[in-house]
Amino acid sequence: MKSPFHVMIIPTLGCPSKCHYCWSSDERSPVMSIETVREIAEWLKDYRSDQVTITFHGGEPLLAGAEFYRQALPILSEGLAHLEPTFALQSNLWKLTPEMAGIFAEYNIPIGSSIDGPEDINDTQRGKGYYQKTMRGYEIARANGLEVRFICTFTCRSVEHREEIFNFFLNNGFPLKLHPALPSLRSENPKEWALEPEVYGDLLVYLLDKYLENLGKIEIMNINDLCKCVFTRHGTVCTFVDCMGSTLAFGPDGSIYPCYRFVGMPEYVMGNVYDHPTAEDLAGSDAWKLMHAFKDYVDRECAGCSHIRYCRGGCPYNAITPTDGEIRGVDPHCIAYKRIFDEITDRLNEELYGSADMDMEEFCSPFAGGTKPGIMAILRVMATK
Ligand code: SF4
Ligand code: SF4
Which helix H or strand E contains 209, and what residues bound it? Predict the structure, then answer.
C-alpha cells in the first residue's frame, strides 16, 4: 500500500514580519535558486514511488518572487508527474501579488496563512500592521479563486482572550486551526510567549465545547483531527503518527532535513541534494537516527498510555530540540494531548455505551430531538463534507 509522502520546500528562512514568538525566521537566509529546485526534482524522482504533497514553507516563501514559482512549479509538476504531486503554500500573504496569485491558481494551490484573532490581539503578538497586510493578500488570493485557511497561534497572553478569538473566526466564517506557541529556541526568554501544556489542554477542551455549541457554523480542524484519531485509533496529522521517513524538508541551499521545523539547524542536516544521497545515506545520518531513536523511546515510555496508537508521543521536534538533541522525554504537550484524548474518549464511550435507550440516529445527529450534540455528531458532520 502507498503511504502519504510530504515534502516541504523552504525557499528562504527570511521573513518581512517580526512576530514576537517566531522561532524560525532568519534575516541572513539566502533564497533558493532554480538550479536547486531542479536538483530537488531530479533527486526526488527516484527516491520514493508514493504520491507526494509539496508545501512551500518558510520563513516567508513568497520572498522568492513570482519568477521563482513560474519556473519551480512546472519543474516539479512535470519532473515528478509519476508521483502525482499536489502543492500547498504556507504564507503570511504580505507579498502576494495578482501575478503570483494567478500562478498559484493555475496549480490549484491551497494557502495556509496566519491570523491570531481580531486586529488588536493579532498585532500585539505579530507586530503592528501585520493584520492589514495579511488581509490585503487574502483579498488578492480570494479574487483569484484561491482557498485560504488561517492558522491561529495561541500564546500565553492571547489565550486570555480565547472567547474573542473564537468569535472572530466564527463571525468571519473562517475555519479555525490552532497552534500553541512553542518556546523560542532563539530567544533569551524562550517561554515569554509559549503556551504552557496545561493551559493548552484546557484550551482544547474549551474549544471542543464551543465547537459543539456551534456545530455546523464553524469548523475547528484540530478538534476534527483529534476526534478522528480517537475514533479510528490512528493518527491523522503528523504530530500523531511516526512522521520520520514520511516527511522531508529542503532548505534554501538544498540541505535535506527530517521536517521544515529543523531547517537552518546544521545538526539536523541529513544530506544535500547536490550530493545525490541514497536512502541508505540518509538513514546513516545522525538526524535520521535520532528521529528513529525517538520512535523507540516512545514505544517504551508511552507503552502504558491508552492513547499511544494515535498519539505516538507527539512531535519529535518539540521533544528533542529544547534539550539539544538529547531524548529526555516525549513532546512536552503530552499533558495537553492526554487531557483532550481522555475527554473525547470518555464522552464517546458515554455516547456509545452510556445511554442504552438512545438510538444510533440520535447519537449521530447534531440537532435531532433536542439531544446535545456530541463526538459522534462531529464525526458525522465531517463524514458529510
Ligand atoms: S517533526 Fe513535528 S512538525 Fe515535523 S513532521 Fe514530525 S510531527 Fe510534524
Ligand atoms: S498522551 Fe503522552 S503518554 Fe500518551 S502517547 Fe501521547 S505523549 Fe505518550
Answer: helix 197-213
Give the other-Cβ count within 10 Å of 333's Cβ.
Answer: 23
In the three-class reduction of DSSP (H, G, I as helix; E, B as strand; rest coil), residue 142 is classed as helix
Could you report the per-residue pLDDT of 237-291, keeping only the tens digit for each? 999 999 998 999 999 999 999 999 999 999 999 999 999 999 999 999 999 999 9
> 53: helix, coil or strand?
strand
Task: Let me know: does 371 contact 204? Beta carbons within 8 Å.
Answer: no
Rounded Cα distance, 351 and 18, in Å: 46
Q: What is the CATH number of domain 1-356+372-384?
A: 3.20.20.70
Distance 375 CA to ligand 1 centre (A): 26
- Residue 309 contacts by C-beta under 8 Å, 6 or more apart in sequence? 233, 234, 235
Tell which one of 6, 55, 247 to mutate to probe ligand 1, the residue whose CB is within 8 A of the most ligand atoms: 247
The strand pair at 176-180 and 148-154 is best described as parallel
In this structure, are residues 287 and 316 in contact, taking their beta carbons and an 8 Å threshold?
A: no
Secondary structure (3-state) at 76: helix
What does the block give as the cell for 87? Answer: 502543492
In tens, the pLDDT along 85-105 reads 999 999 999 999 999 999 999
Domain ranges of the chain: 1-356+372-384
Query: CA-based diameter of the chain, in Å?
Result: 66
